[in-house]
Amino acid sequence: MGLMEGTRAARIAKVAGLVGLVAVAATGCSTDEVLRFGWPQGVTPQADDMRNLWTGAVIAALVIGLITAVLILWPVVFHRKRGEELPKQLQYNHPLEIVYTVIPVVIVAVLFYFTATTENSVTDKSHTPDVNVNVVAFQWNWQFEYPGYKTPDGQPVRTVGSSSEIPLLVLPTTKWVQYNLRSTDVIHSFWVPQFNFKRDVFPSPEKNNQDWAFQNTIDQQGAFVGRCAELCGVYHSAMNFEVRALSPELFDKFMKLRTQINAKTGKPYSAAEALSAMNCGELCSPVAVTTHPFNTDRTARTGS
């Protein structure tokens, strides 16, 4: 009888393993996609740190869940009632009670350690930034100011969004960027999904005892949509921007143009004019490619 039960359990295990293998193969996912367990792809080292934490936590949860399931099913399958004689009772087994008290404490401590170290890595501001950006949120758009770069009239280089133009936050890859966040009215939230990071933007953050800055680096060139993630009024859903990540060489070229006078207009180059003048393909598109302005004229819209 025992041999038959062992053979049956082995068959069940093989079938379960085969089903799991087929399920993974049928999805067509790469190893990286499988190990992300649904975590979105990031473009910063900080996003990678969070992904690694997520992957480790999910694997730990699956292992613990599997062990728990086995411990539950073991007595169900192998200790079914076979007579009137009671099996060996383990209540008041102090060593066993210590074990199943210590193990959860160790699990929680390990998860806490890796969570705390990842959080410290993501929120670390100890690096000397290569670029500082003052991010100013207002109903219902964004202003990006580069205090380290001046136009010929002595003003900081800045880009301001409008209801007809999505503002472009142009940044260099592989360089440390510090974002200084502030709102001119209500609470907003600076969110770039590919950063896997969101931070609320407060008016007078110092008075509200808020952490109003963060740092990161961007691994790859590209255009990444940014949004306000805090309900801030009527046109909250239209409060978008775009991060345009350029190589350090292209970024330097962009900023060199931004600090010069455009001979055609007699004014400093705008972000769109500078990108157009650089002529480097879609990466230097003068308008946002990840989102588009929202028509604020209510009379121009019809109900569905």
Report what the structure shows.
The chain has 304 residues and is of the alpha+beta class. It folds into 3 domains: 26 residues; 71 residues; 164 residues, Immunoglobulin-like. Helices cover 38% and strands 22% of the residues. The protein is built from 6 helices and 12 strands. Strands 3-2-1-5-8 form a 5-stranded mixed β-sheet, with no helix packed on it. A 5-stranded mixed β-sheet has the order 4-10-9-6-7. Strands 11-12 form a two-stranded antiparallel ribbon. A hairpin with a 4-residue loop joins β6 and β7. The mean pLDDT is 86.
Write down the CATH topology of the largest domain: Immunoglobulin-like
Adjacency order of strands in the biggest sheet = 3-2-1-5-8
Largest sheet: 5 strands, mixed
- N/C terminus separation: 68 Å
For CATH, the homologous superfamily of the largest domain is named as Cupredoxins -  blue copper proteins
Rg over CA atoms: 28 Å
What number of domains? 3
Annotation, overall tally of beta strands: 12
**CATH architecture call of the largest domain:** Sandwich
Strand coverage percent: 15-25%
CATH class of the largest domain reads: Mainly Beta
Work out the helicity level.
25-40%
Instruction: Note the run of SSEs as H and E.
Output: HHHHEEEEEEEEEEHEEH
GO molecular function, one term: oxidoreductase activity
Domain Cytochrome oxidase subunit II copper A binding: 128-257
Subcellular location: Cell membrane; Membrane
Domain Cytochrome oxidase subunit II transmembrane region profile: 29-126
